[in-house]
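Onboarding guide, step 5: your first structure request.
Type a short instruction followed by the sequence, for example:

Predict the 3D structure of this protein.
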Amino acid sequence: MNISLDGKVSIITGGAAGIGLATAKLFAASGAKVVIADRNQEAAKAAVEQLDGPSAIAVHMDAGRAEDNQRMVQQARDAFGRVDILVANAGVFDGFTPLVDTTEELWDHVLRTNLKGYFLACKAALPELIKTKGNIVMTASTAGFFPQQGGLAYTVAKHGVVGLIRELAFEVASFGVRVNGVAPGGTITDLRNAIKLGQAYGDDRSLFDDPQVIEFIKATTPLQKAGRPEEVAGAIAFLASEAASHITGQILLVDGGYSVRGFQPPEQQE
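The system replies with structure tokens like these:
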């Protein structure tokens, strides 16, 4: 079966950059209508201009606000008449911050965006997805399975996303709605720190602005390369398509083989 999204209406949170933008481009090229929802309004508008497909709109939203998620879904309906696919993808990083340095502010910000934001997006979109027997794909992470892929807040949030995928898949299966996830390993994106941390990655730059991070990913990944957003987008498109019509509650690891043996510092590898 071909992976086709022709005529499907999709919402992608965090769709203005990185994995979200790569997914938006692939969806549009596959015939889907795309709603790019992002807190960066100008970047969302610019992303729409990059798409090769029938139609797309940008929605300015804060993933952690219920009313913004509800408005996002309403704008998708107003523009395209329905919602078939939700890709919950918006996220921030915690700069590998351990417990002793994790402030309440950092904890709240990361959990609000990376977990509460997914919950709110799912809650807002579900009534429409039930109508269309649509599906949800969430961006988890290898941090949802292994420690030291993030700091405390990020790792806890991604473990929460894994639980959300599995529990929600069970809850909504009787409505014909599928829920799956992807768990990228080290992937070069525009992932940014939640706040200015004043530590190793002590500002709001992208994590991957530091070339040492990329070299570390290569050294700890069996395929010896960092992932690309397009590689994760391909997995999301598969799970969102009819090619995966009998798959739900699953999390596809897109990690270059990282999960084969879990985290090992480079000096411990053969």
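Each response can be followed by summary notes, for example: Strands lie at 9-13, 33-38, 56-60, 85-88, 135-139, 178-184, 251-254.
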